[in-house]
Amino acid sequence: MASDSNYDAIIIGAGHNGLTCAAYLAKAGLRVLVLERRELVGGAVYTEEIWPGYKVDTCSVFHIIIHKSPVVQELELERYGLRYMDMDPFGFAPFPDGSSITFYKDLDRTCASIAKISEHDAQAYHDFVTMWGRFNDAVFAVFNTAPTSGGIGRVALQRLAQMRAAISGSGIGSSGMVQQVLAPYGQIVRQTFESEQVRAAVAWLAAQSGPPPSEIGSGDLAGVQSLYHDVGAKHPVGGSGELAYALARCVEAHGGTVRVDAPVSRIVVRGERVAGVECADGSYYTAPLVVSNAHVQTTLLKLVDSHDLPARFRQRVAGIRVGNGIGMTIRCAMKELPSYTATPSSLNPFGYAEHHNAMQLICPSVDYLQKAYDEAAQGQPASHPALVVMTPSGIDRSIVPQGKQSLYIWAQYHPYKLAGGQQWADIRQREAERLLATLGEYAPNVLDAVEDVFIEDPEDLERRVGLVSGNIMHVDMSLDQMFFFRPLPELAGYRTPISGLYLTGASTHPGGGVSAMPGRNAANVVLGDLAKRKRWFVGPLVAGAAAAGAAVMIRRKREP
Q: What is the secondary structure of 493-530 as a DSSP string?
């Protein structure tokens, strides 16, 4: 077999987690091949030219959680072209009565905006963010650790003092804090805030992970509000996909290979051990290690032959709760940006105001959000959808032609499987118009400003991006499918029953969102297993000397 078909590790899928894992493995000295089915890397972190001169983020837009991981610094991604712009304010919530709230990274400035609606809620918000901020420092330390009982337990013990400080400072006691974590976030916002405006804005940001306000065990989804005041929200210059492109350059700079238009059709297993992969065009690549960034069900039920896994295990994988979609999105080429009646203000010479930097939150109440979920649970698209409106051209003029603007809408809730014989092909245009009409109630100029629309319904998200059932988180982000349980207890450590086959991506701990944590954690597990196999010790994977030391210890002899 030709030497260019033999590798130390193969990564299936060039989503940002797959590329992150590949970059760490390549940096440690492995000969790495990344195979991507689409024509460009990125997966859900993808930017493409939909219309001439428009660089459009067709899935993720703003990056938040990744800035709680060390990936950007450890992989030195700025060297490979990644540059972030801060979004400040990060949130803007207009309401039908003409009031609005502006959320800045600076907590005091945000509280001043809230105080115009409720002095009580301004102080309550300050206390809420402070308490959850301390608690979430411990949570994100766990997110950056492979979910083994020893690893997570060790990190939790190291952060115990911080967690106790959060509890003692909250005035609710240890049992009260546990109750907050286990409660539905809808209940938490109602108990914490008195104004429906603050409740709605915090609840709508919490809902971005998918669960509705009524879901038990979702309390920390509201508590994640503290993250925005910690790291803020950021947008890569040139589009969300610039993160993926920088990661791909990093892989290649360390000797790895990234191939696009190369869909994998089968993971080859011999004698209960992975042997390589076969692509749709018949090409075959061998490696003793394969890491799949594809959905867990795609990987283990479609790419692995049925006879290579026990029937009972396959049934458990099939039973992982994926859900019936979360939402849909439209991308619009615009003549101008939304002019909100809640904030009549003059635009700057580039045609935008301060709030155009932000996620514009269209959700007037918690009940409004819950009703949207309830309708979707019955197989009906929300009659009054909640919207996150994004106008990235307000902060990045490089993504649109001169004199033009871009507007993106993410909306919830929209089921993948529809009731009553409906088909998305028949209703997608109607639902896209509903999203614009909903925004038009808050910004009347929008309908006349739209020049073109690109629609992605839940079926499109599955077909184009590989998101099974249109779930942008791969697997439902419910408490029973997080930490040690994601996606199943026996798969939580990124390993599979097939020796040498690993998982990464949103299906794995800590879940969806642009974090790169699953990719980094999986790389640590792979390198740790290699080290054990060679009977050498490899410490935590870090940049610089530690990575160089790992390379010396695990480097395989290259082909001439």
A: TSB-SSBTEEE-STTSTT-SSS--HHHHHHHHHHHHHH
Give the pLDDT confidence of 283-292 residue by residue, as tens digits: 999 999 999 9
Whole-angstrom distance, CA of residue 545 vs CA of residue 550: 9
Q: pLDDT of 455-482, one tens digit each?
A: 999 999 999 999 999 999 999 998 889 8
Rounded CA separation 380/92 (Å): 28
Beta bridge partners of 46: none
Measured CA to CA in angstroms, residue 378 lies from 329, 421, 458 at distances of: 20, 13, 16
- Reported as a single tens digit per residue, the pLDDT across 406-457 is 999 999 999 999 999 999 999 999 999 999 999 999 999 999 999 999 999 9
Phi, psi of 361 (to 5 degrees): -100, 110
| DSSP-assigned letter for residue 558 | P
Q: Which residues contact 82 (CB under 8 A, 6 or more apart)?
A: 72, 236, 242, 243, 246
Beta partners for residue 278, in sequence order:
266, 284
What percentage of the chain's residues is helix, strand, coil (to nearest 5)?
45, 15, 40
Architecture in CATH of 3-46+68-83+240-321+472-554: 3-Layer(bba) Sandwich (3.50)
Among residues 353, 83, 111, which one has the least CA distance to residue 236? Answer: 83
Which residues share a beta bridge with 100? 94
Q: Which of 412, 404, 330 is nearest to 370 (CA)?
A: 412
In the chain, ranges of CATH 3.30.519 domains: 324-470
Reported confidence tier of residue 282, pLDDT bands at 50, 70, 90: very high
CATH class, 324-470 region:
alpha beta
Query: Whole-prediction pTM value?
Result: 0.90
Q: Which residues of the chain are in CATH 3.50.50.60 domains?
A: 3-46+68-83+240-321+472-554
Q: For the chain, give the longest Cα–Cα distance.
A: 72
Going by C-alpha positions, the residue among 478, 548, 491, 556 that lies closest to residue 525 is: 491
Residues 6+ apart with CB under 8 A from 178: none
Q: Render pLDDT for 503-544 as a digit per residue (tens, 0 to 9).
A: 999 999 999 999 999 999 999 999 999 998 875 443 444 444
